[in-house]
Amino acid sequence: MSLGRRGVGWAGLVLLALALSAGCAGLNPAPPRALAPGDWLAPPDPRPLSPAELQQRLSRARVVLVGERHDHPGHHAIQLQVLKALAAQGPLVLGVEWLEQEAQPACDALSAGKISLEEFRAQVQWDKKWGYPWKMAAPIFAEVRAKGLTLVALNAPQSVVRQVAAKGLKSLTPEQRAEIAPALNLDDPIYREKVARQFAFHGVKDPQAQEDFFAAQVVRDETMAHNLALRLYPWPDGGKRGLVLAGAGHLAGDLGLPPRIARRLPGAKPLIILPVSPKGAQAMLEATHLPAELLAVSTPAPPPPPRLGLLLRVKNGGLVVERLIPDSPAQKAGVLPGDLLLAVDGKPLTSPKGIHDAIKAAPFAPHAYLLERDGRRITIKITLSQPVPTARPK
């Protein structure tokens, strides 16, 4: 009998030890592995999603928005991954910020397989109008052509957007007004506050100039939402799904594009995806207000491109300096608002891209900029600062 009791006692001790060890393990869990490119997160959960979980979340969405930094190859790779996943599920409408709506005939021709990628690149004037490396977007357009996906050029004409930024909505002619969304919601205080953070960077100080700057941003967002909705009608009975690829500033925090799309497509709850670095993902997981439903951990960002710090408009056989970014190389060199930029190193300028073409062989060397100011021609030398290399862990 005593042996039996001792046997029970030992069993109890073993169970107690197991319970205590389990409790200790619960109190001191193994630290989660570091986030890495290829991980997907659904904030605030820090646990990476499995491929099946990611696919399930994508399959439930009727409209998906994927942000980007325009010059980041890793962000475009994530967009291609989402595009392929959605295209496998049925009819898909792909809208891109990168193209102005006048490029729509070329988009239709590419979708129908009637033109090659290089013909498409030439017809939409990619290098002149968008200017970011073609090789980053080419795989996305190749997928459109191969699968026959509907491609939509979302953006408003930049000439109209620039005029709104410079002179306001009231300056538009009836023909120009017809080129942008018919409904513009400027009563958006939260988005206005977000856009206002860019005022100092762009040197926008005057209250009316700030109002016009905000109106230009709304024109972009409303027109992109309008052009997407037109291709998804009849909604929701058409059975189509939408994917938008645009700068992260147009969609982060459920501001900008998402509410304007939802207003036009009743019942649509756009799924917002932001590509982020591992460090950025960790910061967003800890944020009070979540910027997106899904975070895609990307490869490291390329170094930021060198910038003069000029906001330019084509006029009078050159480029008029509309604004200067404070403390930029151009401002420090003595460039002033209203200057007419005519040439760089003797090469005449007909577009902002001409500056890039003139200095790209040696971007950080001094270059001579020919300006016209008050009827006089002057030459100013500007040297761009080289980015400080980021230390790599050994």
UniProtKB/TrEMBL annotation:
<dbReference type="InterPro" id="IPR001478">
    <property type="entry name" value="PDZ"/>
</dbReference>
<feature type="domain" description="PDZ">
    <location>
        <begin position="306"/>
        <end position="376"/>
    </location>
</feature>
<dbReference type="InterPro" id="IPR041489">
    <property type="entry name" value="PDZ_6"/>
</dbReference>
<dbReference type="Pfam" id="PF04187">
    <property type="entry name" value="Cofac_haem_bdg"/>
</dbReference>
<protein>
    <recommendedName>
        <fullName>PDZ domain-containing protein</fullName>
    </recommendedName>
</protein>
<dbReference type="InterPro" id="IPR007314">
    <property type="entry name" value="Cofac_haem-bd_dom"/>
</dbReference>
<dbReference type="Pfam" id="PF17820">
    <property type="entry name" value="PDZ_6"/>
</dbReference>
<dbReference type="InterPro" id="IPR036034">
    <property type="entry name" value="PDZ_sf"/>
</dbReference>
